[in-house]
Specification:
The protein is mainly α. It is 86% helix and 0% strand.
Length: 83
């Protein structure tokens, strides 16, 4: 198995472990995981191709759907306020 896919599997396991923490302890490791998802997706794309990147992106979006929705909602509200 490719190293990038092994790292992606470890990322999923780490995200599952972080999700079991109390909410007040999830912020810092969750932010680190969210930031690491981008270079991981690039590494997967370079090593195994686009189809696997779609799987990685789907995993990231499914695990971080609420924080990403919150961030998107704040960005939209901020953009509307600046117009």
């Amino acid at each position: 198995m490719a190293l990038s896919l092994i790292l992606a599997c470890l990322w999923v396991i780490a995200a599952a472990i972080v999700s079991m923490l109390p909410m007040r302890h999830q912020y810092a490791p969750g932010l680190v995981l969210l930031i690491l998802a981008v270079p991981l997706a690039v590494f997967v794309a370079m090593e195994v191709g686009v189809l696997w990147v779609l799987a990685v992106i789907f995993a990231v979006l499914s695990m971080f759907r609420r924080p990403l929705y919150f961030i998107a909602r704040r960005l939209v509200a901020r953009a509307k306020g600046e117009q």
